[in-house]
Specification:
about 325 residues; mainly alpha; Rhopdopsin 7-helix transmembrane proteins; 3-stranded mixed β-sheet; two-stranded antiparallel ribbon; 11 helices; 5 strands; receptor; olfactory receptor activity
Length: about 325
């Protein structure tokens, strides 16, 4: 049978053993052009995020809750990008972009774990900015190590359990034939649509996680920024208001990029044309945002710039 390598037999029934990823493009020439572009993006993502983590760890002035959250965000971005980019890069050089059932399930689990953890982390960072602006005198007493450590652990556990429930509910379904995923990674909604069994339970699990974790985190962020706005309006001096706003501008930009692109992909009605648009938007939030996050938090951040200058100064002194 021609399709035997894609299927495995289970009694009188056959089930899918391999999925086929269509990738970003089926044009070989374009794939060869995209390979060095996305390889460069991946390497820059690793270097910038790892560099930011090391800078935060090496400079004592950055040993604060905000930069602890930021270093964890960079760690998530490294892992998130690494769960997708290496396979996508190898697929650019292949004629058949196949992925095994187990590998697809693993990629889904890791991606969902990291993306849902990032949702919770962005909410925790919004709360941190609210405390810093709304209660600056009590900030050190409120944001103690045990609290922000528990916030990080809580975000990771929520992401892990949510991802586990989604992955199990999706890959527990029966897949008997259709195995083409119109994407460059294992996208959960598309995989569920390929099932030959009733996907209702998986769809409900996906909806529940999206509402509780995704929109729940967004609600916390919006409430935090509402309180931040109210606190800024109470500041009498214009200089003080500008300084307060600048402390959360980078986080607000990161949240807008992350949620803006994700909502555009998963809330818009689907059609053949929108599938192509989804791929472009997915490249942005899956590939580009992990690269942009360290830049967003560094370019206008005087403390990060100061830490980098101090590090360069120390390195120069050691070399002399």
């Amino acid at each position: 049978m021609a399709s035997s390598r894609f299927m495995e037999w289970n009694g009188n029934q056959s089930s899918v053993a391999m999925f086929v990823l269509l990738g970003l493009s089926d044009e070989k020439e374009l794939q060869l052009i995209l390979f060095p572009v996305f390889l460069g993006i991946y390497l820059v993502t690793l270097i910038w995020n790892l560099g930011l983590i090391l800078l935060i760890r090496m400079d004592s002035h950055l040993h604060t809750p905000m930069y602890f959250f930021l270093s964890f965000l960079s760690f998530i971005d490294i892992c998130y990008s690494s769960s997708i980019s290496p396979r996508m890069l190898s697929d650019f050089l292949k004629n058949e972009k196949m992925i095994s059932f187990i590998a697809c399930a693993t990629q889904c689990f890791v991606m969902l774990w990291l993306s849902l953890t990032e949702c919770c982390l962005l909410a925790a960072m919004a709360y941190d900015r609210y405390v810093a602006i709304g209660s600056p005198l009590q900030y050190s007493a409120i944001m103690v190590t045990s609290l922000y450590g528990r916030m990080i652990a809580g975000a990771s556990v929520i992401g892990f359990l949510s991802s586990l429930s989604l992955t199990v509910s999706c890959f527990h379904l029966y897949y008997c034939g259709p195995n083409i995923i119109q994407h460059f990674f294992c996208d959960l909604p598309q995989i569920i649509s390929l099932s030959c069994s009733n996907p209702f339970s998986s769809q409900m699990t996906l909806l529940l996680v999206a509402i509780v974790v995704g929109f729940g985190s967004l609600l916390v962020i919006l409430l935090s920024y509402g309180l931040i706005a109210a606190s800024i309006l109470k500041i009498s001096s214009g200089k003080g208001s500008t300084k307060a706003f600048n402390t959360c501008a980078s986080h607000l930009a990161a949240v807008t990029l992350y949620y803006g692109t994700a909502l555009s992909v998963y809330l818009c009605p689907k059609s053949n044309q929108s599938m192509k648009q989804d791929k472009v938007l997915s490249v942005f939030y899956v590939i580009l945002i992990p690269m942009l996050n360290p830049l967003i938090y560094s370019l206008r951040n005087k403390e990060v710039k100061g830490a980098l200058k101090r590090l360069i100064k120390r390195a120069t002194a050691l070399c002399q």
